[in-house]
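Appendix B, example 12.
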Amino acid sequence: MTDDDIRLAHRLADAAGAAIRPFFRASYTMESKADSTPVTEADRAAEAAIRAILEIERPGDGIIGEEYGNIREGAARQWVLDPIDGTRSFIAGRAIFGTLIALLEDETPVLGVIDQPILLERWVGAKGEPTTFNGAVARARPCDSLANALLATTSPYLFDHDERPRFEAVAMASANLVLGGDCYSYAAIAIGQLDLVVEAGLKLYDFAALVPVIEGAGGRMCDWQGAPLGAGSSGQVIAVGDPRLVSEVLDTLG
């Protein structure tokens, strides 16, 4: 990863935002995908805009995208795209969705962008550098106890029958629970507004961009076994602003 990659990631987010904004709270086409999740004209326009730039600027890199699939899967560098993470929030006219752009090198996330194109908020995380929020250094807040942690998850209904009671144990041990938010909850950790997110069933494009953002803000992301997240992860995700929380969360998950 280079400074040019970071500058390119900003351009990709700019292009995606320009594609999304005309559709927000406006008329557009939408349909259900094979997994029953919604996809809109805005999702596809944003990913197409990103891909068009990547094909010119990084023709040798792979692309893993939610809407248009994968190309050059054997490349050592892979751009991972979720044009609208939180499509249901977008459909509802709620500005808590985000565009996720990640760069993986040897299957490990090294660069991540969370962009909220309506509020004009952008988080950028790069390996070895502090996370920024709209250009200023972002820091997670200290919280060394689950009892004091503000916990978020998109929906408890997204856990399977084995995962849900394990999540509920964490929720009962924490101070408060916030529902909804998708990627925006992770962005909130990076600026000290939340302490913990626990989720499952995520795809690579759902979490790859989040890892450098959280970790560059002083936090940590891992799976439910405490292992680092990468291309081979199962989709069970823990994000904390204070790494001291991880062991207690893992113990509570069982």
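The two ends are 36 Å apart (CA to CA). The chain has two domains: 3-137, 146-253.
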